[in-house]
Design a protein that fits this description.
Layout (H helix, E strand, L loop, with lengths): L19 E5 H14 L6 E2 L9 H9 L5 E3 L2 H9 L4 E7 L3 H11 L3 E6 L2 H14 L3 E6 L13 H12 L3 E7 L11 H24 L7 E3 L5 H6 L5 E2 L9 H4 L15 E12 L2 E4 L14 E2 L5 E6 L4 E5 L10 E5 L3 H5 L4 E6 L2 E7 L8
Helix pairs in contact: 3-4, 4-5, 6-7
Length: 372
C-alpha cells in the first residue's frame, strides 16, 4: 500500500494538500520559551504531558529547554517516546493487566519509568511483575484531588496505599500524582485558583501522614496549562505536567486569564483545510470534518478569515457560516484552530512544520493511536 504525505520539505504552505495538521514553528517556539520564562526563579521542574503532541521530536525539544522528562497516559505512548530517544517517562495513569505489565517492566529496563496506582490489588500486581522481571519499579500513588476520575481518596486511604508500596520488596515509592484535571477549563480565574488550593489541602493531608510515618515523599506531580502557576506557587508541587501550552486550542483560549499570572500562549496548531463547495451565499463547506478535527470540546475556530464561522461538522465536511459580504472561492485554503488539541493530533501521522509560509520539517506523530 502506498503512503501519501500531504507536504514535502521546501513546499509553500499554499501547496500543502488538505486536510493537514500544521504546526507554526515560530509560535510553537515562542510558547516553549514563554513557559520557561514564566517559571524563572522558581525551584520547580517541568514534565510536559506527551499526550498532547505524541511526538518524540517535540518531547526532546522540551527536554533540551530543561524539562526532566515527559508524562504519558498509556504504555504504548511511553514505548513510542522511549523508542524516539526520551529517557525519562512517567505514565501518569494506572496500568492494569498481565500483558501491559510485562510491557511496562520491559520498558523499565530501557529507560527511567514510573507508573501510578490507586488500588491495593494493582500494587500487588505491580510488585509481582517487577519481581518476575528482576527489577525495582517506581510507583506513585494517584490521589483524587478533586477531578473525581482515577485516584484514591486523600489522607488515610492514600497513606495506606503509599505504605503498601513502600513495604513492597520490588517497588519504590516515588511520590504522589495529584492532577486536578477538572480545574483546567474552569473559565474564571478565581474558580481555578480555588480548585488548586483545595487540591493542595488534600495533598498536604496525605504528606503529613507520610511524614509522621517516616516515609519520604520525593515528589508531588500534577498541574496543567490552565493552572500551572498556581501549583508552582503553592510550595506543594515539585513537577508541572503542562501539555497544551505548546499548541493552545480553542477550549483553553476560552479561559479567563485575567489576574492569573498565567501568560497567554499563542495558537500554533492548525488544521489546514480547503473550501470544497460554495452552495449558498451564506455558507461554504470545507474538507475538514470530524475525521480532521475533534469537536468534543466545541467547534474549531476559523483563524485567518474574518466573517467566517465553523458551525457544524460531519464525517468529511465542515460547514462555515459566512457573514454578509464575505465570500470564499472554491479551492480557497484556510486555517482552523482545533477545539481540543489532543484528540485532533491523534488523527494525523505528521505535523507539517511551517515557518514563514514554507514547510521546514515533517515530524512523525509516533504515538498516534497508542491505546494499549
Amino acid at each position: 500500500m502506498s503512503y501519501y504525505t500531504p507536504a514535502q520539505i521546501g513546499m509553500s504552505l499554499a501547496e500543502v494538500d488538505t486536510p493537514a495538521l500544521i504546526l507554526d514553528l515560530d509560535a510553537f517556539e515562542y510558547n516553549l520559551k514563554l513557559l520557561n520564562d514564566s517559571l524563572a526563579g522558581r525551584s520547580i521542574k517541568v514534565r510536559p504531558h506527551a499526550k498532547s503532541h505524541k511526538c518524540p521530536e517535540i518531547a526532546l525539544r522540551q527536554m533540551a529547554l530543561g524539562a526532566v522528562g515527559v508524562c504519558c497516559q498509556k504504555v504504548s505512548e511511553a514505548e513510542a517516546m522511549v523508542d524516539g530517544g526520551v529517557n525519562d517517562v512517567l505514565i501518569a495513569n494506572e496500568v492494569v493487566g498481565v500483558a501491559k505489565l510485562k510491557r511496562l517492566t520491559a520498558l523499565a529496563r530501557r529507560a527511567k519509568i514510573a507508573v501510578c496506582a490507586d488500588h491495593p490489588d494493582n500494587v500487588t500486581a505491580l510488585d509481582n511483575a517487577a519481581r518476575e522481571a528482576g527489577l525495582t519499579l517506581n510507583v506513585l500513588v494517584e490521589v483524587n484531588v478533586g477531578a473525581n476520575r482515577c485516584g484514591i481518596e486523600p489522607g488515610e486511604p492514600a497513606f495506606k496505599l503509599a505504605q503498601q508500596i513502600y513495604n513492597s520488596k520490588n517497588l519504590h515509592f516515588a511520590g504522589l500524582q495529584a492532577y486536578q484535571g477538572g480545574a483546567q477549563h474552569m473559565r474564571k480565574t478565581e474558580e481555578r485558583r480555588a480548585a488548586i488550593e483545595a487540591a493542595c489541602e488534600k495533598v498536604n493531608r496525605t504528606t503529613a501522614l507520610l511524614a509522621l510515618a517516616g516515609i519520604p515523599c520525593e515528589r508531588v506531580t500534577g498541574a496543567g496549562t490552565g493552572t500551572y502557576l498556581f501549583e508552582a506557587a503553592s510550595k506543594v508541587y515539585h513537577e508541572l505536567q503542562t501539555g497544551s501550552y505548546i499548541f493552545m486550542d480553542v477550549d483553553y483560549a476560552n479561559n479567563d486569564w485575567t489576574e492569573s499570572g498565567i501568560p497567554r500562549f499563542e495558537h500554533s496548531l492548525f488544521v489546514w483545510t480547503t473550501v470544497m463547495s460554495c452552495p449558498a451565499a451564506d455558507r461554504a463547506i470545507v474538507d475538514a470534518g470530524l475525521k480532521a478535527s475533534s469537536i468534543d470540546s466545541g467547534m474549531p475556530r476559523v483563524f485567518d478569515t474574518p466573517g467566517a464561522e465553523y458551525i457544524k461538522a460531519s464525517d468529511e465536511h465542515g460547514v462555515l457560516k459566512l457573514d454578509a459580504g464575505v465570500s470564499l472561492a472554491l479551492g480557497h485554503k484556510l486555517k482552523i484552530v482545533p477545539g481540543h488539541c489532543d484528540p485532533t493530533v491523534n488523527l494525523y501521522d505528521h505535523f507539517v512544520c511551517v515557518r514563514k509560509g514554507a514547510v521546514e520539517a515533517l515530524w512523525p506523530i509516533a504515538a498516534r493511536g497508542s491505546l494499549l
